[in-house]
Amino acid sequence: MKLLLINPQNKHRRGFSLSRASRYPPLSLAILAALTPKHWEVKIQDENFEWFEDEKDKEADLVGITAFTPNAYRAYEIAGYYESKGIPVVMGGIHATALPEEAGQYVTTVFKGEAESEWPKVIDDFEKGKLKPLYEGGRPSMDLMPTPRHDLFHEGYMFNTVQTTRGCPYNCDFCSVHTFNGTKHRLRAVEDILDEIEQFPDKLMGFVDDNFYGYSTKSKEHSYAILEGMIQRGIKKEWFIQASFNIADDPKFLDLAAKAGCREVLIGVESENIHQLKQANKHLNARIRPESFRKKFRKIQRAGIAVLGAFIFGLEGDTVEDLHRRLKFIRKSGVDAIQATVLTPAPGTALFDRMLKENRIFRQDYPSDWQRYHSEEVVFKPDRMTPKEFEYNMYIVWHKLYNKTSMRQRFLRSLWLIRNFKSAMWAYVGNWHYRRIVFENGGFDPDTHPAKQKRIFREPGTHQVIDLPKDISRPGVKVSKEKKILF
Ligand code: B12
Ligand code: SF4
User: Fold this and answer.
1) Do 195 and 207 share a domain, yes or no?
2) What is the pLDDT of residues 21-59, one digit of tens each?
3) Minimum-distance ligand 1 atom for the alpha carbon of 161
4) Residue 437 C-alpha to ligand 2 middle, in angstroms?
């Protein structure tokens, strides 16, 4: 029996797929492969490297597809090919879980939730000719997670990925994680994690946990045990994590992480505006208060680890001036790498439900419009600016963050602050990736200010460049006394 597992990519905008060094392997598919009985032949078809073509490589008795929202449309396209040949397609992942009815129109079987407990049942039912239209995997214990089949990943990947936890106790209203993986922070057995890391030869890796360190004493101890285990076993890898500001106040964690090879940590900063943090339920950041963000970054950098700050633009209440205020905050804060994304209402989040109710989402030609939900395009009406103003000013923000001169200056500053060449280099390379991701339109020169460029707008979702609308404001940065920049 042949199982073909497919990792589809958004065809119009390739985002992280653009360069080899910013691609990450589809861990979900390697888990499915490991859960599949031995008498099955399993293969991963990965559009990060090769577009799916009808003619070749398509042999399968059963197909499994994974998708986040921006690549769901592509998943449906590929599913259509197999459905037309009478080969059943099972679709799982975050998008199918959020919108099972929609997915059900394009695939044979929808799989909701995590795969570990129910995937063997799917295989068994298929073998008996009794495949059902819907399975619910729920959120099983992480003890059920097998060692993923890393050997099936495309050999072109530079990074491997490992998962040590699932779920998040917070409920930020723009985020899919707590609705999908739940609010319980589930921890995986440390020995399983270490055995898995030892098994693959790749030197570079990332922990895909939403929060490697977590918020409880138990999760903190769990992270220590992983790091101590890596050091004891002599595992020599370089890697990144995602975590919250609380790691900055734990010198033991920072010391262990640096010794175990941590080069970069992504922190979801989101905004410098405390009201927005509260409004979006980003309570941890609001409690710490934006005035102290810079100090926290420094503590992490002093440990030899680069900080990748993730910021959201277009949060509720944002005006054009606020976008520029956030930009200024970012540049002064000293973060080494920057992810500056456009607020995007993902299905299944509170943000999506609210915006839908308020009739503010203007990209609703689903499923095709899901291709636009990649966090670099405006798909909703902001409350205090027009979508075009937002979009145009995002180009200015991106230009300021990712023009060559500012990236080089940032690199020198990182060297000074982190005092670790490799970590500073990770951040520098990361900035190059984001530059490629946001400017991948062919019509815009990232090194020239948008005001000096006649045509910058790409018809979203395509590569076609369109004229800049005349009626949008191009403000200078005015900062009022009450809302002064913090650094
Ligand atoms: C690593 C990661 C990435 C990697 C990609 C890794 C990959 N797999 O290709 C990178 C950095 C490239 C990335 C990019 C982006 N990401 Co991302 N990413 C993640 C992160 C942190 C972990 C994903 C992961 O590997 N999890 C581990 C695996 C094992 O879990 P899983 O995929 O959920 O799989 C399990 C189940 O879903 C199920 N399952 C999954 N597929 C299938 C298929 C079948 C057939 C079955 C039966 C079951 C099944 O079984 C698996 C095992 O239980 C998640 C957060 C999260 N917790 O999910 C965000 C997340 C998925 N990303 C998100 C976003 C928004 C993006 C970007 C748009 C960001 C950007 N600014 O550009 C891009 C879009 C990428 C794209 N392809 O279009 C959002 C997606 C929201 C949504 N509704 O789609 C998430 C949820 C983060 C968030 N805070 O909301 N991302
Ligand atoms: S944004 Fe981060 S802290 Fe907030 S719910 Fe998502 S994973 Fe948790």
Assistant:
1) yes
2) 788 999 999 999 999 999 999 999 999 988 887 666 578
3) 25
4) 23
119 lines ligand 1 (CB under 6 A): yes
pLDDT tens column, 327-384: 999 999 999 999 999 999 999 999 999 999 999 999 999 999 998 899 988 999 999 9
- Of all protein residues, the one whose alpha carbon is nearest to atom 44 of ligand 1 is 92
Q: Are residues 157 and 135 in the same domain?
A: no
- Contact between 346 and 352 under an 8 Å Cβ cutoff? The reply is yes
Nearest residue CA, atom 60 of ligand 1? 68
Give the ligand 1 atom nearest the CA of 348.
Answer: 83
Torsions phi, psi for 131 (to 5 deg)? -60, 130
The domain total for the chain is: 3
| Tokens (6 digits) for 102 | 């929609």
Domain identity same for 319 and 430: yes
Is 445 within a domain?
no
170 lines ligand 2 (CB under 6 A): yes
CATH number of domain containing 56: 3.40.50.280
DSSP per residue over 323-392, as a string? HHHHHHHHHHHT-SEEEEEE----TTSHHHHHHHHTT-B----TTGGGGG-SSSS--B--SSS-HHHHHH
- Enter the pTM of the model: 0.94
Taking only the tens place, the pLDDT of each residue in 234-284 is 999 999 999 999 999 999 999 999 999 999 999 999 999 999 999 999 999
Compute the mean pLDDT over every residue in the chain, rounded to the nearest whole number.
90
Kindly state if the Cβ of 268 falls inside 6 Å of ligand 2. yes
C-alpha 296 to ligand 1 mean position (Å): 27
Quick check: CB of 16 below 6 Å from ligand 1?
A: yes
Q: Which ligand is nearest to the CA of 26?
A: 1
Give the mean model confidence (pLDDT) for residues 202-214. 97
Q: Which domain holds residue 456?
A: 450-486
Q: How far is the CA of 404 from the centre of ligand 1 (A)?
A: 30
Among 312, 211, 314, 207, smallest CA distance to 263 is for 207
Calculate the CA dihedral of residues 351, 271, 9, 67 and round it to 10 degrees.
-40
Residues 77 and 193 in one domain: no
CATH of the domain at 255: 3.80.30.20
